[in-house]
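Table S2 (continued). Query chain:
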Amino acid sequence: MPRRPDSTLAQVLSVAQMRAAEAALIAGGTDVDQLMQRAGRGAGEYVRRIAAGRAVTVLCGPGNNGGDGYVIAEHLREHGNPVTVIAARDPATPAARTARTLFGGDVRGPGASVHGDVLVDCLFGSGLTRGLPDDLLALLRGLANRHPHRIAIDLPSGIASDSGAALNEGLPDWQLTIALGAWKFAHWTMPASVAMGALRLVDIGVAAVGGAAHVLQPARIAPPLPDSHKYRRGLLAIVGGAMPGAALLAADAALRGGAGYVKLLAAQRPDGVPHDLVCTQGTDAGALAAALEDKRIAAVLIGPGLGRDAAAVARLRPVLARNGPLVLDADALMLLEPAMLQGCLAATVMTPHEGEMAALERAFGLPGDGSRRERALALAKVSGAVVLLKGPDSLIAAPDGALVLAPRASSWLSVAGSGDVLAGTIASCLATHGDALRAAREGLWLHGEAARLCGAAFTAGDLAHAMQRALTAGLA
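Corresponding output:
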């Protein structure tokens, strides 16, 4: 991914937004042919470096994605790389026809039997809304089977850009997908994203689009000020419940996530409390409410290990009544009712997985249909909370419509307790500055970075202990 200080390179655009952005470029004096040359030669340079002199086959469709393919092929030919173009259909747009006339190499029809080292898919791009015809699907599959290295341009053919849905069964997988101009939702959405391999972006000069979603960027966390002390860095209170192990995991992560002071408000003192974690206990709601009156508390986390009985509800109510920065996770989400949030104006983050999301949608009277991002945005709007919808394609939705999509994180995160670690990390970040959306972004990035540092087959405890190294990597 490009790493220049330009937030436009992190934006994620729908098909309609991308078309409008390209139209704006054209209105500003850059014609379609120039845009195609810019996009195709940028992608062609990636292909040239990967091919490293090996034979390349470029599969071109009839539209402008096919035109990009002819430009890529000409870029390769000019640099001495052996390249063959397969024209699945004749060019059907003026820019694609121009690009074909400018290609000085070999163009073959769809019936040609071609073998090579690298296949470049320029059959269809981001505008596709229906499945590939049988003949083109067979052509794509056959070429993919005969090429060990496969690169998709903009999007793999057969993928719906806005939803990430596969429009055909049995589509090939790709080692690299090169986005043109801007990221599309499918690049970061299951099931499409899992088959795209590595992702790269060619910048063609698209301007910032108002209201666009963005890809989660690496955290840039400021170290404590020179005159900081433990309270100024943030006192985080974690409310425990029936299953203390989950709250301890969250606390382990929070201790390493930036907060200056972490306190566990336990229903009963658990075994194995580390020496650097302050733990108080009180089984009744009155004792908890009294503990929460400490004005130095900067944020509260409740949910991990809370339980779902009447005693758990009794512990949840004083936390919500406190009306301070808050992270709601796990059991707290299953117990939450809209009336409990009435009058709560504080910065709040909810961290549901799919099952908890469905329960929240029922509680808030939401239909629960549409894409994951549409559902998360709807819940954020009706609840007033920042919603981090967890999963292999995690995303963050804010009440004002802001949307952040996370890159694929390690699949080794599919381990018991990793959600508790995430909640503790977000809550630790929230305690340091009080900004719910920023805390969700920082916590999600730190969680993924900690998983990367852990490698394979780690436990939730390993993940929590890696948070300090992740935070170091994220320092501004």
